[in-house]
Write a structure and sequence with these properties.
The protein is of the alpha+beta class.
């Protein structure tokens, strides 16, 4: 006999109003040094309120401002609803709600964890269950940790609101119709200029003839693949490379180099080019340069970008250079600053901004092809759909070059410049790369820092540490300066940025005069920064000293390397 259910079942608990801040969001969890894997969605710097505005359609500015602080988040939010879906629904993930601290960004704030089954069921976490730190500053990240070494998951996170707050009705954005006429028209708008296509045409004809051709990409985190899931398969670089191969390759004669490093501008890119592009194999026949959203960090405001482009163009194998202009969620990029370089050198150019921004503001029934929510993974990086749009813009250019007659080879060495691209023949100097015209005394900088920015290069299924051959001073070390005597008309110092409070500042002197103080906490996460120590000097020996700043005399500091003029 069946026992059946209760005679008078309770009504289901009434759900509070809620705001989706993540909806059907793909995440990729990377292997951790201690085993397992973890993926994170970063929420600081007003990213959480941007998610609420874009995905949750919240327009109440008071509510949005509450999400920008830990105190406001706790006032607004009653509970957090989380669901995770993986192919293996039997596994668990540990959901992490990480508040960044005021005293120590990563260490002094609350780090709440909860085990969640990856079968798509929603787990509701009341904030009243969490023991909060008094040092909480902002909501830092939602993280997802797995026992597997690598995992891809689809996650939803919504915020259930406290009494007195309301939320708009949630309506998900329509998917992209990649086969529509509207999509093709949007991609055509990415085409800025074919330029002088003689070099690109030459690479295409080589590929068609079955000869080896290499296509390389250099840029920031978008070129690295940020936002694409899985990044090594769906990032714009790989999709554009695949398109080039489908059009022109004979077998496996077209090769691929990806040299994207997050958080870096062309100031570091021009130093990395020799190591990350030329040092990775054959010299490239085509180089796509993507720094349009990173170059606000270029202190020269264009000199380094033009130097990079000019140095590539003057390589002895005469590669083609394509300028690609990506875009941020706030419709911003630096193409107005950088595009004149493309005009001066008559280069092929593609603008993602030109393609997508105008149509973002069209109603769904009035020609909008893709919404901002579907294009952007966060306020900086595209989703896999966004990466495909970038790749299709490049593919449109490839097709245009193929169907157009080649021009004549220009003389790039005699062209008048746009900026002051004086960093010619820039090379990397670190512990590994010696230089006969340099003399180094490490002083107290005798350690080697292993806690570095890790990046997936090329088609690697592992992450490579950036600038591992470095010099680090320990917190308890004596204060003997690092001294470099070098023959070069310019010098750039590459240092490590970090959010760790174990690190402090360092002062840079050139020929006995103070130049600047390097502060590793300005950005707040682990990556590499290049700054000019000097430029425009005589090509004679100059002395550079790096001393720990007296304000942080008991802290660590890491010198990653230098950029100098090679032969």
């Amino acid at each position: 006999m069946s026992l059946g259910g209760p005679k008078a079942p309770k009504d289901p608990t009434k759900k509070r109003p809620s705001i989706y801040v993540l909806y059907e969001k793909s995440i990729e969890a990377y292997t951790k040094p201690d085993g397992g894997s973890a993926g994170a969605v970063f929420l600081d710097n007003k990213r959480l309120s941007n998610y609420a505005r874009g995905i949750g359609k919240v327009t109440d500015e008071e509510m949005l401002s509450l999400l920008d602080t830990a105190e406001g988040f706790k006032k607004l939010v009653h509970s957090v609803g989380v669901s995770v879906t993986c192919e293996n629904t039997e596994q668990e993930t540990e959901f992490v709600l990480h508040m960044y601290g005021k005293t120590d960004m990563y260490q002094s704030g609350t780090r709440f964890t909860k085990k969640i089954q990856t079968n798509g069921s929603e787990y509701e976490i009341p904030l009243s269950e969490i023991t909060w730190s008094e040092d909480d500053n902002v909501v830092g990240q939602f993280a997802f940790e797995f026992e597997a070494d690598w995992a891809v998951a689809v996650v939803n996170v919504r915020l259930y609101l406290n009494d007195g707050y309301t939320a708009p009705e949630f309506v998900p954005d329509a998917p992209v119709d990649f086969e529509s006429a509207g999509y093709r028209e949007m991609i055509a708008k990415s085409f800025v200029a074919l330029g002088n296509n003689v070099r690109l045409k030459r690479a295409i004809e080589k590929a068609k003839a079955g000869k080896d051709v290499t296509i390389a990409f250099i840029g920031g985190s978008i070129t690295e693949g940020a936002g694409a899931i899985p990044s090594q398969k769906t990032c714009y670089t790989k999709v554009a490379y695949d398109s080039f191969c489908r059009r022109f390759a004979v077998g496996d004669n077209v090769h691929y180099t990806k040299a994207g490093v997050g958080g870096t501008s062309s100031e570091l890119g021009m130093i990395r080019y020799e190591r990350d592009v030329l040092g990775r194999g054959a010299k490239p026949d085509v180089v796509v340069v993507e720094f349009a959203v990173n170059d606000e960090g270029d202190e020269t405001k264009g000199d380094c970008y033009e130097t990079l482009v000019r140095n590539i163009l003057q390589e002895d194998n005469a590669p083609a250079v394509i300028l690609l202009f990506s875009v941020f969620e706030n419709d911003w990029n630096l193409q107005e600053r950088l595009m004149p370089v493309g005009v001066r050198y008559d280069l092929p150019m593609v603008s993602v901004k030109n393609a997508v921004v105008e149509q973002f503001y069209l109603p769904a029934d009035k020609g909008r092809v893709i919404s901002k929510n579907r294009f952007f993974y966060d306020v900086y990086h595209p989703t896999s759909d966004g990466h495909r749009i970038m790749a299709d813009g490049l593919d449109y250019l490839f097709a245009k070059a193929d169907e157009t007659e080649a021009g004549t080879e220009p003389d790039y060495k005699t062209l008048e410049t746009v900026f002051k691209p004086e960093f010619k023949n820039v090379r990397l100097l670190d512990r590994k790369e010696g230089y006969a015209e340099a003399e180094i005394s490490c002083g107290s900088f005798t350690g080697t820092d292993p806690d570095l920015h890790y990046v997936e290069m090329n088609l690697d299924n592992f992450r490579t540490p950036q600038f591992p051959n470095n010099w680090m001073i320990e917190g308890d070390a004596a204060d003997e300066p690092f001294v470099l005597k070098i023959k070069s008309p310019y010098l750039l110092v590459i240092t490590k940025d970090t959010g760790s409070m174990e690190f402090g500042k360092a002062d840079i002197y050139v020929d006995g005069e103070f130049v600047f103080t390097a502060d590793p906490h300005i950005v707040g996460w682990t990556h590499s920064t290049a700054q000019i120590a000097y430029r425009g000097k005589e090509n004679t020996v100059h002395t550079v000293e790096i001393r720990r700043n007296p304000e942080t005399k008991d802290k660590k500091f890491t010198i990653l390397g230098f950029g100098y003029q090679g032969e």
